[in-house]
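Quick entry, no commentary yet.
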Amino acid sequence: MIAGGLESDVFSPVAKQHTSSLLRWAGSKRALLPRLAELLGSSVENYVEPFCGSAALFFSLSPKQAYLYDLNDKLINTLKTIRDKHQEVYSFFSDMPTTKEAYYDLRTRYNNADMADVEAAASFLFLNRYGFNGLWRTNLKGHFNVPFGGASARSPGLAFVANCADLLSRAHLESLDFRASLKKHRGKDVTIFADPPYSTSSRRTFKEYGPKVFQNTCFRDLAEELMELDRSGCRVILAYCDDEEVRKLFAGWNIEEVTVTRNVGGFADRRRVARELLVYNFQPETAL
């Protein structure tokens, strides 16, 4: 079941870059990136994501220094390998046939074989690109079980993968629970973006990683950690579904309603508009 270190070395300053994420990810905040960028401004230095997923905001902001965490160790290992060996990963990935049969054959091998890092990263990227709706879901044995989503997904080019790898060179990557990862970061020069899986007491939400990844008690723990980060001087922003409990817990913070279009059950012809919240503890550089 899956959800979202050593202290990082000093990062060398590099030219500002912006790109899209290399990965598809259910629940991604891709549609909210313009507003999130407005809130956070043009210069983000020490950037932390405890549930990085596709790290869409990281790639969009291109911070000088970043710490990306997630409980999904296969995701983290994939990002590390792309960062360190992007040409080898791309070569392996681009040789994979995009048929339904090839997808299921690879899924079986990925779940049962002991793959080396490059093959494992290329396989993760392939399953993510061609699996249904960009989901990452596992069964009780921890096996990836998302069905084939079609061969129409666009494959990334080498230049794009290289750009993603360059941006990831600024990031410390670690598979870690959010409680442990957030305790590593304190201070006014730190920006925290928390985008956890949704789990509320008042509404049913889709568990894309499995039924026990992020429960209601986990959100209470997260809220306590974010309050502590606030007291230490961190700039904190939380993205979550519109829920009365969230509004009560963060009553003293800025709470902004946003609307996004979500696919119901992952089907493009079953879209609905959902109301979500951006909750933050700072004065935005650009107001609505």
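second:
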Amino acid sequence: MTNKERYQRAFSALHASGDFALEAKEMKKTKIVRFPRLIAACAALVLMLGLSTAVYAADIGGIQRTVQLWLHGDQTNATLVVEDGSYTLSYTDEDGNAVQQQGGGKAFDIFGRERPLTEEELLVQLNTPEVEYRDDGTVWVYYYNQCVEITDKFDDNGVCYVQLVANGKPLYLTVKYGNGCAYGPHAYVNPNSFN
């Protein structure tokens, strides 16, 4: 005798009552409609959020967010709009004037194809050392919360070497007077490479 036959013999003596059989038939007729409605409501919510994000981005020309940057040695709240490898930075300076700064760039991927800079790469660019030549003849370097006057550090060739430290990491800055600057995390840059 097989297992199937044993189960049939064991349960053949059991019969459902008439009420139970009627209730089971009615349950088969009842359909639960709540689940598809819940899915439709979730899909509508996702669609609405997606469209509002697209409208928000289209309205301002790019994704806008508030960031904190070190500008001229002070931490400043600024509005950053990034679009296609370019940025627009808007902030209020220490005198209360509205300032707008723009920049951007391109990079090359591992296959040699040109691509726009990402937001992270643009933020790194914004946090690089800045050299300022003031009207009074002094030269200043700004890097994070540091503001260093380097006017008297230039040698006879018009080159200045400054070591800056931020977040416990050194940065070696080479400034060629009136001809730009270069920096590196391990050593000073040869000023002859500026030309």
